[in-house]
Amino acid sequence: MDTCIFCKIVKGEIPCYKIYENKDVLAFLDIENDVPGHTLIIPKKHLTDLDSCDEKTYQKVLSTAKKLTKHFLFLGFDGVNLVSNCKEASGQIVQHFHIHLFPRKTNDEAKLTMQPAKQKETLETVAKKLRLED
Ligand code: 5GP
Ligand code: ZN
Known about the structure:
Layout: H1 5-11, E1 18-21, E2 25-29, E3 39-43, H2 55-74, E4 79-83, E5 99-104, H3 123-130
Antiparallel strand pairs: 1-2, 2-3, 3-5, 4-5
The structure holds guanosine-5'-monophosphate and zinc ion.
Guanosine-5'-monophosphate (5GP) is lined by residues 5, 14, 16, 28-32, 40, 85, 91-94.
């Protein structure tokens, strides 16, 4: 897409600090520079979010997440968080599917917290509403 910032990064129109690349996937440092090594993994083709991502592309992005997780652990990190926001309500700002990878160190000061509104329903009620049969 012409206006998509991540498509521009794929095309080299906007610079990035590349961490990994293959034919279909690109991984680069998040511009925020918050958690050291905060990496974004994206499909090279424009797909808005997880909901619109085809299964094959999703597998390629996820397999890169696993590859980089192993790489970060090999480099001496102690853990990794994977986060993906799907749609604006979840906090998705860039409308090009991506997974955040946060390399972690034991006792680092990073805090990935979520403070949703207080739950008013029981687990049983919630499970009844959400259950999906295969
Ligand atoms: P979201 O909230 O959509 O899941 O996260 C989008 C992420 O993209 C944010 O963490 C933001 O810092 C990052 N980001 C936005 N614009 C750019 C950019 O031009 N370059 C890079 N490297 N990251 C960006
Ligand atoms: Zn895009």
